[in-house]
Amino acid sequence: MVGANEDEIGKKEGQIAQLNDQLAKLQVTASPSKRSTASDDDMLPPPPSEDVPYLPDDEDD
Predict the structure, then answer these.
(1) Which of 2, 5, 31, 35 is the most exposed place for a label (fewest CB within 10 A)?
(2) 14-47 burial string, b = 16+ CB within 10 Å, else e?
(3) Domain ranges in the chain?
């Protein structure tokens, strides 16, 4: 009986370790400095490129 409980505890500890690793990775990706730069990049309009001059041509067609 005790051995079975120790096995269950070992499995739970392994799961906790995995979840803690996942949580640490999520916290790194969601850290304010990284999140702000990533969201700023996402919010910026695309840089001027060759596509921009052709947009009015598409409307004319």
Answers:
(1) 2
(2) eeeeeeeeeeeeeeeeeeeeeeeeeeeeeeeeee
(3) 2-60
